[in-house]
Prior knowledge:
The structure holds two protein chains of two kinds. By secondary structure, chain A is mostly beta strands. Chain A has two helices and 23 strands. In chain A, helix 1 runs parallel beside helix 2 (about 210-225). Chain B is built from one helix and 14 strands; from the N terminus they run E-E-H-E-E-E-E-E-E-E-E-E-E-E-E. In chain B, strand 1 (about 5) and strand 2 (about 10) form a beta hairpin. The relative contact order of chain B is 0.23. At the A-B interface, helix 1, strand 2, strand 4, strand 6 and strand 10 of A face helix 1, strand 3, strand 4, strand 7 and strand 12 of B.
Amino acid sequence: MTTPTPTQPSPLQLASFQVGRPVRAEHLVTLAGNLAFVAAHCVHTPVSCFLGGYRVASGGTLEYEVFYRRSPGVRVLRVSIVPEIVSLTPGRVSVTIPGMDLPSEATWLDDGEWNGVERSSPSVYSLIQNEFVAWVDVSDVLVGSISTIPVTFDAGTLSSGSAGIHSLSIAEMPNAFLAPELEADDPGVNSASLLPGSELYDGSTTTAGGLVRLLDEVQRWRSQWPRTVQLVGAKTAGAELGAFTSTSWTALDAKVYTRAKRLGKSTTYTHKHTLCVLYKNTHATTAGKLRVKANGSARTSLALPATSGAWATAYSTAGNQNLPVSGTDQVVELQFEVQADSSGPTITIATIALIDEV
Amino acid sequence: MTETLGLYGERIDAEGRAYYAPSSPDTRWRDGRAIDAGTAHVLASDLAHYSAESLRHLVCSATPGGFDTNPGKGLADAWSTSTVLGVAIPTDIAVDSPAEIPWNQLCSMRFLLPHSVRDRPRKARGLALRRVRVSIDCECELEDGVRLFVALTSGRARPLEGPLLAFRYTGDAGLVAGTDNVDEDYAALAVLAAGRQTVHVVLEPNAIDYPRQWVYTRESNASGRQVSQAISTTLWIGWTLSSASNFAIYSVSAYEWPNPVTESL
């Protein structure tokens, strides 16, 4: 029996649990429902950004690659773009995700308008804009690992002007139902095990129901439901986030902001993240570094080894980027900096992501 | 001392922390044994706290060097025959309202938010979407040289058409930035100063009967499609410039914001 997921939690007052009185199945049904709410509905949006600063002429291509770490359970991504035609007349553009048809990883649930077929799109002067939408099944992508999703935009037939992506969005979709008894990775508790009037049973971490399952799932939410702060630039020359040659720390000139998550009371508690970067280093031997400053304080830097000009990804040690929760309203100001270890390399940055690891 | 978190329930520690529940292989969790109230408190408190801390980061967008909103300073008037095609230019434009600009791609940015969470209780109005804080790192050439608009709409609607969920704008010389939006009233922020600055705005979506969109999910233990429903919204950043000024946007960040403590069921 699948378990419907509520779209909002039900409040429980702690006074309803009285010492000496039994905890009823109805209490656990409510708690299981609240767990289903956070696990099935509070899922993250890895990418939502404006890319209108990067455009190409007719026939040109823009390539992007973004980082993604998925939430557990059956999971589908909604991917969409709004194109931008900088011209007085409409143009024709197309978009694809190359290499996403491997059954062992992500597969198309519906490739919609992301199949490489050119479609018409209005100009920037129009009040109406198109949105190209597609759906990707990522249920088989390994939970806990960080993947990359490549996106290719082609400016097809333009009578004049240039084209690019105005908005890019990649978002996890909420689950209407959970079925841990059918899908081993699905979160939550089988609601049939918590029916009022039924005896409560212990179960285990591998059963779909029972109190042990409920306790285990609550702890799993702490560590496996990510949030992502991601700056997206293109891999295409001239459209990256930045190129750096200095041996002194040089900042990307944009600051971004987020609200850190507090799950600990200690004054030393920090919200741990993994730093990910897509970059290239023109040198054959000399490396560089990337770091983030959180509220003006530098975190542990990430090495960017030489790549002789090839694009590569680099990841920090999992969770070693500690964002403070002590700021006003837990808000953190983030600024990213790059440095070459010695003179010689040009380090070009395409994408930077901070993905949380609790 | 406990803390009430509205729709999320109640948590043990008013300073906000999660407690580790007793480990699952513990022998106390055996069939036939009672669950003690203290453990139930921990479980309920943790879930209330996790719900409160499940606020998501929604938008992260950066343009190196700043996105120049008006290269060549030729687009000072957002509503003109040189900036809008396909519609008649209004002759009577309402100032300090969403109708002040056309919200096409020459005078606005849009950020697609396909799934919003509706768990914020509003007195006598039912549930509303979570509040959203928007932080805009930008640079103004002249003081009050640009009017900045921030709006949240239902679905893909432009702020001009609605449904308009929240709307804030800069440019009232008599106000201090940070005034809350109340009901359908538009709330003004102070003028933008000259130079580099970060504008922080909290959007408080109105409680309406939100249109829902069908979205795809996947069947459990199968490969077929299933459908679910989601409330989608669009975040808009718009601007209109004085002819002599320029305005660049370096980054836009948007993240869900906690419910105010005074709101209640």
